[in-house]
Amino acid sequence: MTIPDRLLAVQNYMKELQYNHTGTQFFEIRKNRPVTGLMETAREMIRESLPIKCLEAVILGIYLTNGLAAVERFPLSFKSQFQGRCFRHVVLGVFHAGRFGALGLSRRSDLMHKPLQFRSLTDLVLDFQAAYEGYLHAVVRVKVGMAVTHDHTSFETIAWEHLSLNPMRLSPEELRSRLDRHGRDLRTKMRKGILGWPSPCREQPRGKSVSPHRTLSENPSRSSREDISFSPGVKKPLVSIALSQSGRFSRV
């Protein structure tokens, strides 16, 4: 199974879970949790097979693609405005073999999965922006994170907002320049991974139990995330599955 086929299998599995229209968030996602804690939440999503929203889909997508060392993953967030209201959305950007794409969930089909066909990060972002414009939304903020480690036991946190841009205040040339610069960083990271230096992970001292540091100031994520689309009904998949390193699905 090729890498694009594996990514499509991951996307199809998340679509089977369905987008959560209930108004109740079933899984708590705190962005400042370490990767190992977020991966435990992803395993819980698979066990429970409940509907999820866009942020939960990003965490699940990271978990299901951890075995694909040839694919770099990074968070890609959007803030849009419509009739005075703000809407936030996030997908999991992916990069492989010189092409960009995305995994995720949304009420709108053109605001989630993007196949590996975009030559640059700018082309990927502009495709999302064009989709927003089709719903009369103005994109006022684009945030691009750093590549996520493939080590599911890492105590690193995900860099969600390494690059933050306002397309309304930047010229098309400046927007492309800054996005392409970040895209080149991802390409460089991928080349290092091919040469034998995979996504970085923090070494843990042996013989000691290491737990993530949490502060009393941590705020739980919002009880729900707004999306700009709507579709009634949810459905629970009959079988929970996970993507193995060989590209095969196994029962969980």
Automatic annotation (TrEMBL):
<feature type="region of interest" description="Disordered">
    <location>
        <begin position="194"/>
        <end position="232"/>
    </location>
</feature>
<dbReference type="InterPro" id="IPR028131">
    <property type="entry name" value="VASH1"/>
</dbReference>
<protein>
    <submittedName>
        <fullName>Vasohibin 2</fullName>
    </submittedName>
</protein>
<dbReference type="GO" id="GO:0005737">
    <property type="term" value="C:cytoplasm"/>
</dbReference>
<feature type="active site">
    <location>
        <position position="106"/>
    </location>
</feature>
<feature type="compositionally biased region" description="Polar residues">
    <location>
        <begin position="212"/>
        <end position="222"/>
    </location>
</feature>
<dbReference type="GO" id="GO:0045765">
    <property type="term" value="P:regulation of angiogenesis"/>
</dbReference>
<feature type="active site">
    <location>
        <position position="89"/>
    </location>
</feature>
<dbReference type="Pfam" id="PF14822">
    <property type="entry name" value="Vasohibin"/>
</dbReference>
<feature type="active site">
    <location>
        <position position="54"/>
    </location>
</feature>
